[in-house]
Structure formats: structure tokens, C-alpha cells
Amino acid sequence: MSAINLELSARRERAMSIEFRADDKGGETFRAALSSDTPIRIWSDLDERLIHTAEAVDLSRAVGGLPLLFAHDQRQPIGRVDNLAIEGGVLRGDFTFAPNAKAQEIRADVAGGFLRNVSIGYRIHEWIEKDDGRLIEATRWELLEASIVSVPADPSVGLNRAAPAATMQRGGTVEENTGGAGAPDFGSAQEIARRQGIEEGRRAETERRNAIEALFIGERFQAPEFQAIRAAALADGRGVDWAKDELLRAVGAGVAPIAQGSTFTQSPAAGGQRFQGGDDAVEKFMRGAELQISVRAGLETDKAKVREARDAELGGMSLAELAREYCIRRGLNIRGMNRDRIAGVALSQRSAGVIFNNVAADFANLLENIAGKALLLGYEEPTETWRMIARPGVLSDFRQASRTGLSEFDDLAIVRDGAEYRMGTFSDRAEKIQLTSFGRLFRLSRQAIVNDDLDAFAAVPRKMGRAAARTVGDVAYNAFLTNPTLNQDGLALFVAGHNNLITTGAALGAPGVASLSGMKTLMGRQRDGSNQTNGLNIRPARVVVPLALEDAARTLQTAEFNPLITATNSASPNIHRGTFETVADARLDSVSATQWYAFADPMLYDVIEVGFLDGQQEPYLESRDGWSVDGVEFKVRVDCAAIPLDFRTMVRNNGA
Fold first, then answer.
1. Is 174's pLDDT higher than 50?
2. Which residues is 124 bridged to in the sheet?
3. Distance set, CA 336 to CA 324, 333, 340, 449, 539 (Å)
4. What are the tens digits of pLDDT across the range 51-67?
């Protein structure tokens, strides 16, 4: 048995239509198929199966009948479930409705076909994990109750919120049974409800604690005397009114506000309040909700984190439910509001600027964190090759900047005995670089929250991250593919006058021993602008090719012998083996399928620089509250530019 720490307080639901036939005897009893061993999806990557055997299903509670409820409301049972039995892998039982008005009203709706769904409440005691953690089989589980429900299982509408804390919901099908009427055992139903612990009580306790916490927001109430009242109210189960009365007494007694800057500080820069302390309810919620959305959206794949999310208090909640929980924990009054209005209230808190332990306590910021994580994940996913041929640089603003490369120093001269040393000379060569901004907008709307649209929060920014990575790559490759004019001498980057272009001769052609040797010779013989006598001995470190020539380049990189095997050179060694790295990129194919390049190591020589604003290579994510459309608008921006630094470190072979 796997040691899964399964959170049994999470609800599971399945609802199916009631199979009903007219009862001409006027009976009150219906035969119901409550559950089966068909797996159901309880998580994005997790199924659950209840094993239906006599050994697996604990029916000990059903000896005197189990309660029949409406919408899992245990405060008012509407009948009893009797004669429970497992028949062919299906758990079945008789539904008997009570004679009270509420029960008979529900029975009439069932008989009329207006209520056609049934759910069960159950508790799992033992389970095993299968399919690499993708399936949980409950090998011993206990049936607690059955309920008539008004709508199919939909976690966003809030049904079954009154289910027991350790109860999962699952559904089945009701069939008619014309025999076996009997009086419901209300005492048994009430006792089971009491023993299980009603979920409504737990929720009321959460609301009580949140309401008390809300009383103590503010600088004045961080004083030790006020915090003592807060602690007593939370620990002793006191009500909100008691806490208010005690606060008034303390204020009347002249308790002074706490000194600025200790537990609580006002943050003028943030335009709001900042709280420092332990695990605050809002802080815990923000961290937990971010993990839940990250796991559901596929942004967090670590197994430990995924299991932590499943077992957490917020496990399985939709975006709308998370928005509701956020409002409750912030002490916001959302009583009577639908999901759409609650989503709007949650997003509107962005302007509050409240921060708990450096975690921004606004719902929009939570969504921004998710979008930012997806953006960076998308940015890092593509296999961009520009880093192999260029080095990153830092630009402090958007003004045009110079990249100065000093020429090589004069060769050292002979100094005769007693003679003076003479000054050497060198010259500057400056290229100009100026940042350009690239960006797009996208929006997270309250409709996306209501619809539980994870694509809007993860897939869209992830794709924008990929687009940002492509943009930087385009900028880097255009620095040489466009053959720009250099500032240092007014000539094109690749031109005969620079001795870095092969258009004819034995060295012309696809990557091979002879062609690369010719390019290596040109690069090694390059001189600077001074009076240097010998070449600079720069060596090719990268062979940059279109995809059409990738196989030829990689063969040249790894082959032991000359890849161009002929009768005369079959044993000729490949002198370039292991001396360079191959860089293949489809951007070259868009220009020419035959042109290819030899580059020096960009970390040792001036080759190409890709400059970023303040050195920030990852895309920026900025946000603002939507005005024309409800929600939050995000701007993705990357500021970059690229230039060739020196023609001496690159050679182009036209190939044909």
C-alpha cells in the first residue's frame, strides 16, 4: 500500500439521472444505484475508483438504515436508505421518503422528473496507488449517507458544502422499487450527522476566525494588549461581538497605539498597509492558492508539490472558489453575491495594497504571479541558439550607445642598450547600439475566473514567453544576416575589403575540410588597423549553418576521416574534428540555404553583442486594472538590441 497522504476532506461528486417508472401503488420507496467501481477524475491527472466488494465496502452504519438527505444538508433528513447491497459491482439501496412536507415535496419532484440526481457521502480508510500515481483505488471505504441533489456535480456552484469534513461525494442512479415501505429512523440520521461533524460548522468556524482577524487590521490594534484579546478570542471560541466589546474596553482604558515600524508598518511607496508576523491566514491562502493554480495549469510538475496541492485545504478548488475563499479571508462582505460579482470583488482589491510578510495580499497579484511563472517557463522552453554566437550586454537606457573595441597594440620594438622606450599606438573602433522595445498585451478577465479558464492564466502567457524568446533570437541573428554597414569604416559587414567573404575558389562550398580550412585561414590572417606585421591568429569556434547544411556540419565536427571520401583520400584525417561547435538555425534558411559562417568564440573576442535594458534578459511583465473590460491587463515587454562588434571574427561562405 502506498503511503499517500490523501486529504479526505476533499469532496468528490458524480451525479446521474434518476431512472423512474410510474408507481401506480402510490409507494414511497425507490430502488437506487448509488455508486459503481467506474473510475472518476478527481484531479487533472488523478482518477479514483471505489472497489465494490463485500470486503471493501463497510456497511456497518447501515444496519439501522442510513440518512437520506437533500443536497447533503444534514440538518434536515428527508428519509432513510435501507436494504443496501452490492449487486454486480454496483451499490444499491431503497430510498424511503419521510412523511413530512419537505420530504414529500422532494419525492414529488423526483416522481415528476424534476430532480434526477443522487450523490453519496463516504469516507476512505484504505487505498492503494496505481499507474504511477494516476489512479487511487479505495480498497476499504465506508458509506455515510445518500442525498438527492438538484444539479449535476459542479464544484463551481457550491453544492455539497454542508458535507462532513471527512466525506467525499459520489453519485449514482435511482430506480423504482414498489415494495418495502417503512418509517424513517430520524434518531439514527441525527446521530450520524452529529458524529460526522457538519461541514457547515467548520465553515462557520473559518468565518468566525476570519472576522476576528479582520478586527485587528490596523496599526493601533498591533499593540500587545489588543493582540492578547485577539489570541483569547481565537483560542477560546469567542464570538466576534465579544472581541468587539473587549476592543472597546481596551480603547476606553487608553491603550496606546504600537510604535511605528515594529510589528506593523505603513508603506507609503506601496500605497497601502504592510503586516509582519507569522503565518497569517491571508498569507497562507495566497501561497496555497498559487500552488493550486500552478499544479492545475501544469506549471508545477514536481511530484512532492503536486501531492502537497492535492492534500491541502484548497485542494481541487476552481478559480471561482478560490476568489470566494480570498474574499472570506480578507473579511469582505460577499453574502448573497453570485460567482461573477465575487470575482469582480476579488479583483477590485488590487488597489488596497495590503502586504503580508512581503506577499501582496491582492487577488490580482496572485494571478500576476501565475502569469509571470508561465511567461518565464515559455521563455526558457525554446532552444534558442543566439547565446552560442553572441554575448549578452547591459544598456542602462534607450539612448544610442557606443561599443568601443580597441585595436591590437603595436608589436613590441627592439630597445637598444641605453635607448629610450617609444610609445605604442592603438585606435578605437566604435559601433552604435540602441535599445528597441518589443511587446504585447493580454488580459485576465473575471469571466475567465468564473469559467475556470486556466488557459487564460497559463497557456496564453506561456506562449507569449515563447514569442519573446523568438524575438530576441531574431534580433541577434539579424545583426549579421542583414549584412549591415559598420560604423568603423563604412563598409558592409561581409565584403571583399574585409577579407571575410568567400564567393569563389577552392574554399567555396558546403561545410567540408577544404572549405573550413579556407575560412580558418582568412580569419587567422586578419590584422587590426595598426602597424601590426602578423595576423591575429583568431580561430573559428562556431560553424553557423542553415538547417539544410546541419548534417554536413555535424559530420565534419565529429568524423574521424575526411567526410568527402574518394579513392585518393579515403584515409585522409579530418583535421577539423572536435575543433568547433555546430550551430544550426532556421533563420539562415530564410535568407539562403547555401550560405554558412565561421564565428570566433564570442566570450573571447568581439563577435556579436545582444544588449538588454539593465541586463534583464527575461521579458518584463507589467499589469494594470482593466477599465474597458473587467479584469487585469498585462503587458509583456522585452527591451533588446544587437550589433556586430568586429568583422574580423566572422567569415561568410556563400556556398554556391
1. no
2. 141
3. 12, 9, 12, 18, 74
4. 999 899 988 888 878 88
Residue with cell 467525499: 168
DSSP 270: T
Average pLDDT in the 173-186 region? Answer: 41
* 3-state SS class at 587: helix
Among 190, 31, 170, 144, CA closest to 96? 31
Residue ranges with strand state E in 252-380: 264-267, 272-275, 355-356, 359-360
Query: Residue 146 contacts by C-beta under 8 Å, 6 or more apart in sequence?
Result: 32, 34, 66, 67, 68, 69, 81, 93, 95, 118, 119, 120, 121
In this prediction, residue 275 carries a pLDDT of: 36
Q: Which residues pair with 314 in a beta bridge?
A: none
- Torsion angle of alpha carbons 483, 484, 486, 492, nearest 10°? 50
Residue type (1 letter), 318: S
Q: For the segment 219-261, what is each residue's pLDDT rounded down to a tens digit?
A: 556 676 777 788 778 877 778 888 877 777 766 655 444 333 3
- 636 Cβ contact partners less than 8 Å away, ≥ 6 residues apart: 375, 439, 440, 441, 442, 461, 464, 465, 468, 619, 620, 621
Nearest to 575 by CA among 652, 514, 505, 651: 514
End-to-end CA gap in the chain:
67
For residue 404, pLDDT over 70 is answered with no
| Structural element, H or E, at residue 399 | none
CB neighbour list of residue 507: distance below 8 Å, 6 or more residues apart: 514, 515, 517, 518, 519, 521, 653
Q: What is the DSSP letter of 138?
A: E
Copy the grid coordinates of residue 52: 465494490
The β-bridge partners of 170 are 120
Whether 193 shows a pLDDT value over 50: the answer reads no
Sign of CA dihedral 522, 528, 529, 532: negative
d(CA 505, CA 519): 12
Q: ∠ at Cα 322 (45, 364), nearest 5°?
A: 110
Closest CA to 70 of 45, 44, 102, 100: 102
Please tell me whether residue 32 adopts helix, strand or coil conformation: strand
Task: Dump pLDDT digits (tens) for 600-626.
Answer: 999 999 999 999 998 888 888 877 765
Check: CB of residue 516 under 8 Å from CB of residue 638. no
CA-to-CA distance for 150 and 293, rounded, in angstroms? Answer: 28
User: Is the model's pTM score more than 0.85?
Assistant: no
